[in-house]
Amino acid sequence: MGETNERLNILESVFDVVRIVNPKENIEMESNSKGQLYSLPYCNCFEVWKNGKVCENCISLKAIESKSTQVKFEVVSGRRYMVIAAPLNKNDGDYVIEMIMDITDNDLINDLQQLSGFNYYDVIENLSKVVVTDELTGVHNKRYIEEVLPYKLKQLEYNSNTIGLILIDIDYFKRINDTFGHVIGDEILKEVAGILSHEIRGKNDWIARYGGEEFLIFLSDMTESTFTKVCERMRKKIEGASVILDDQSISVTISLGCLLIDSRKSMEMKRILTYVDDLLYKSKELGRNCVTLETIVD
Predict the structure, then answer these.
(1) CATH of 2-128 given 3.30.160, 1.10.750, 3.30.870, 3.30.450
(2) Which residues, 6+ apart, have CB-to-CB distance to 293 below 8 Å?
(3) Hey, what's the torsion of the CAs at 270, 273, 274, 275, to 10 degrees?
(4) 133-189 pLDDT per residue, tens
(5) 138 by DSSP, 3-state: which?
(6) Strands 70-76 and 37-40
(7) Under DSSP, is residue 107 helix (H, G, I), strand (E, B) or coil?
(8) In whole angstroms, how far apart are CA 94 and each of 17, 44, 99, 132, 151?
(9) DSSP state, 36?
(10) What does the alpha-carbon distance between residue 200 and residue 5 come to, in Å, rounded to a whole number?
(11) Domain ranges of the chain
(12) Can you tell me the distance from the alpha carbon of 144 to that of 88, in angstroms, rounded to the nearest whole number?
């Protein structure tokens, strides 16, 4: 750990903030004179950024999972920050070195913007959107689920919100592709995604293409009564719609696995996705075009 101290000293001379954290356990660490790590009062990242919630683009957890250094940019009160998270493996846990630099007045970035004529920060934002968007349907993609859902689930520890997850499968979609062709199948995917997107109201809610003909929807602040109505409304909206292609009217239905989570415990994404996938399977067993809903409560 003596080496770690030396590295920290170098980093602290470059960055505005340097800290060692174990984000999975909500522990902040500091090395003492003997090079040993010891705990400090933990300061949540979202308190620093004044987001009031766990960051959807948390790179510290991502650094641990990918075992690689991650970079992101944040804007707070008009100031722009570059954040770097590098994994630091220790026998007693997974740690991350977080490094934060205020780059608002960075001469190099400002010079690049003046020379090139485009806004560097807009480019970063647009690129960020592209990598988490499904090209065909325009909704979020599976990468977005993998990056955002773990932190949405972790938020359950810090607030009293109840969240709903809906896994949706277009019924007999393979048959549609085999009968009408993949071009028609793609049009149906876009139509279904569009209808479902219009059913999402909250600013914190989202829809993502989970894979193939499956979509995952995240809804926040849901009561069981409201959640049940929303799920059934989505089913009916798809059932009542039709895609007109080459003077043909093609109708589809969907099966839904719906999980309401009313818990103050952090939950593993894999466990939750398995749970909601099982509920979707039950809907298919019941004949499709139906809703299967359950609730997880503390």
Answers:
(1) 3.30.450
(2) 227, 228, 231, 258, 259, 260, 279
(3) 120
(4) 898 999 999 988 887 888 788 778 767 788 999 999 999 999 999 998 898 899 999
(5) coil
(6) unpaired
(7) helix
(8) 20, 17, 17, 26, 17
(9) -
(10) 49
(11) 2-128, 132-297
(12) 25
Which tokens sit at 63?
Answer: 């650094």
Homologous superfamily assigned to 132-297? Reverse transcriptase/Diguanylate cyclase domain (3.30.70.270)
Q: How many CA atoms lie within 13 A of 156 on its CB side?
A: 22
Task: With beta carbons less than 8 A apart as the criterion, state whether 241 and 191 touch.
Answer: yes
Q: Given pLDDT bands bounded at 50, 70 and 90, which one contains residue 113?
A: low
Catalytic residues: 213
Q: Answer yes or no: is pLDDT of 271 > 70.
A: yes
Give yes or no for residue 202 having a pLDDT over 80: no
- Cβ–Cβ under 8 Å, residues 215 and 208: yes
Q: What is the pLDDT of residue 267?
A: 81
Measured CA to CA, the distance from residue 184 to residue 179 in angstroms comes to 9
Mean pLDDT rounded to a whole number for the chain = 79
Residue carrying the six token digits 């957890």: 61
Residue 291 three-state SS: strand
- With cut-offs at 50, 70 and 90, classify the pLDDT of residue 86: confident
Helix ranges (DSSP H) in 155-181: 173-180
| Model confidence pLDDT, tens digit, residues 103-112 | 777 665 555 5
Q: Is the pLDDT of residue 261 over 90?
A: yes
E strands within 153-245?
163-170, 206-211, 214-219, 243-245
CA 296 – CA 298 distance, rounded (Å): 7
Contact indicator for 84, 69 with CB cutoff of 8 Å:
yes
Of 163, 198, 207, the closest CA to residue 53 belongs to 163
